[in-house]
Amino acid sequence: MEITRLKSQQPLSPYAASWDAAIGFAQWDQEDKIDTIRQFLLSKEEEILKLPYQGQGRTGLDENAVTTRYGRYHIFDFAKECPELNDLQDWIRGMWAEFIIADNTQPYEVQFTCWYNILRKGEKIDIHRHQAGDRGYLSANLHLDNYKNSKTVYEHMEMAMSLPNVKGGLTYFPGYVEHYVPVWEGDEPRVSLAMDLYIWMPPYYGVQDHLEHRKFIDSAYLQKIFSG
Ligand SMILES: [Fe+2]
Question: Between 1.10.260.40, 3.40.470.10, 1.20.58.480, 2.60.120.620, what CATH number should domain 22-226 receive?
Answer without folding.
Answer: 2.60.120.620
